[in-house]
Fold this sequence. Notes:
With 89 residues, the protein is mostly helical. 65% of the residues lie in helices and 0% in strands. It has helices at 13-26, 30-43, 50-62, 71-87.
Amino acid sequence: MNSRQLDIFDDSRDTVLCNDVVVTLERRDTVSAGAAWAAFAEEFPDHESLAPLSVLVEALEQRVAAPFQDHESLHDARGALCDVIQSQR
């Protein structure tokens, strides 16, 4: 039997739900990211990670399949995303 002691930081419900969102973002799974974020927000509506995670989920939802036309287009899109992230702080 392999028993493991629970860690109050790694195994708390808010951490588990937050990590669920992060995993779906890493997989670029738009539908699951939105669902994981909604579940997290429902249980922990005042959690400090919700706003930054919502920016990332929205960015994933808005991503385009076509590559950027040039470096300047990429630079502009990156700058706009950075502005949104900074405004969430």
